Amino acid sequence: MRDLSSVQMTCKAWTSNAQRHLYANIEIVGDDNPLMLQKWRLSRGARLIRLRSTLRSDSLLAALVKKMHVPDPHIPLYLPNDYPNPDYDGYLCILASVVMSCPNLEALTGFVPFYNHTFDRLTYALSTRTKLRQHTWVVAENDDVSARSQTQLPPGLLDDQQLYEFTHYHDRWIHLETLMLCSPGSLGVIEHDLFIHILHSLPSLENLCISSFDADDFHDKTLLSLPPVRCLRLEECPGVTENGLTRWAASPSAARVKELILLYQSIMALSTLSKLLASLNCMTKFTVMQSDSEPSFTQEEEQLALQPTLASSSLTFIHWDILCRENQGMKSTRANATFSHAPSRHRMSANAHLAQSIRHGGFPQLQHLRAPRDTAPYGILQSVCLPAPEHGFLLPNDKDGMDDFHAKPYSNSLAVARIRAQRMARQAVQQQALSQNASQSMVRTTNRYVETDTRGTTGQDDTTSVVSHKGPEYSALRRDDDRGNGVSHSAKKDTYHRVAGSPLLPPRHPLHFNTATFGYGQIHLAKVNQGPATTFWRPQFLLEPNVVGRDQNGGLVGWAELLGIQEKAKAGSGASTGSTSLRSENDRSGSSSEHDLPTSDRLSRASRCDGLWNRASGPDLNTESQYSLKKVLTSSSRFSGSSKSTTSSRSKSKSSSKLTLPLDIRSSGKSRYMETWRHVARPRGESGQAIRIQDFF
């Protein structure tokens, strides 16, 4: 950013291009400079106010702004006495004034306001942006609507004014492509008719997310009335049934769907998933996650079903996170660590059905399979995927998750899944080595191979070919696969040819199997009793999250991460006092190294730019004072719970803003040091590694 600012002032020919890159995507990440806050007598939003003044002074710069990422100060909506928080309303007003200064704004990220069918300036400002492309509605509880619901049944809980305002907000969004609607705790109300009206008023809608709405608001009839979209995410919608999903998948409105995400929809019948995959011919990504119920076939369906039971000719990515219960047959399979694919007398689990479908060619285009709960049967999905990569499944920080692996072996954390996959890969290597040794001993006793020694014309190199007495000769292996099989190596170059019935060669790496062993590509497998499917397309077993560092919840991001629910709760209750003292104690210990710190602190340090590259010489600032400064500059409402004076009810006066600054900040040494430190610490990465709307799809 500083380089672009210097470039635009260097040459007039570069000014327009530099300003376009500088103002098209504005990111305000991290905390404000304490000196700037003190100078402007503000508790937060100093950079936003300076940006607003810049955009207001130059309309050409304001027209360049397309996307804007603003920080979320995690201000609670209400004070401990249940009154509205004036700091929250003040921050909304600052954001609204900045949004009104950007006529071509397409997206506002980083901060998501709550909407409870009352007027607020930020929502109105966003409704006037005609080029807006994405928006998020978090519909909170309204007292009047809750009181009205005690005396009457829906529809009709919203009055005419509330219906008109919510409908009017969508009138100018003709370019809106992504819309997300959430009702925390199913307390927010958007009735069925209002759903249909606003969704059909958006002609450019492509991505739609519906989460946690009551069954009276969003149900099967609402789902069938949705406009055609390319990506649909349904999360905890109890009004949507399995019959409604199958009817929607067969309707013309679902013909353009490229991605379908079903989270906690309580699907009980595996035939529902089979119909969804068969009906959505254009779908390339499919995600299903549920832990309360396991979908399965009935006994009649399982007896009459033909493999593959799950099939899709267009899918390239599957996220399969279903908690399957283990029966006695599965437990013995896990104890023996054998991945047998023979039919069992027990009813097959959902994981086993998916594995059998992959083995029988049900997903010819599948590239990646992510299964955080590959536990029933143990490792069944990993066994039908490509071998482990060269470096294995583990990431550098996964060694810290061994305690979670032993405490919660059935967790859907990807860190636990990577440890589990690594162990299963090692067990597979050991079993393969044992089977090869047994096969080689049998080969030597039965004399099945005839060695022919041929020499070249020069007589310098010897080539030993292993040929079967029946069957054609196969392609040679690569040089780094020319290892032993019972033949001692010398300076001569030995070339071995694999034939049908010959034992499998050992891998080149303990966790990297040879792809020829699994019949991938043009190599043909030996004909053994493995059922009708001996060669099939193997996907890659993917265990990486959508957002780096977020392994919980199967690697999927949710509304709690987007809204910062935990941070807001800590800010409201002041529960972070204990963690503050612990963190300052760790910072004061100068003898402790970087590896002695907790994992969360190491990750936070590694993911933040602390400004050392632009740090001038000066006296060392005490770490405890520096952290106390950051603590004071956060939401003032976390301290308002203990004070019962009128300070908590004041909005934004000069006297109240002075109280947010420490009394000893005017000391000469610390002030001079802060002036020489001309860089505010900010997280690394795009948008400071914050959760974005794109991460939901």
Give an overview in words.
There is one protein chain. The chain is α/β, with parallel strands linked by helices. Among the domains are: 136 residues; 181 residues, no CATH class; 85 residues, no CATH class. It is 34% helix and 10% strand. It contains 26 helices and 17 strands. It has a ten-stranded parallel β-sheet with strand order 4-5-6-7-8-9-10-11-12-15, with no helix packed on it. It has a three-stranded parallel β-sheet with strand order 1-2-3. Helix 12 links the parallel strand 8 and strand 9. Helix 1 packs antiparallel against helix 2 and helix 12 packs parallel to helix 13. The longest helix is centred in the middle third of the chain and has 33 residues. The two termini are 29 Å apart. About 31% of the residues have low confidence.
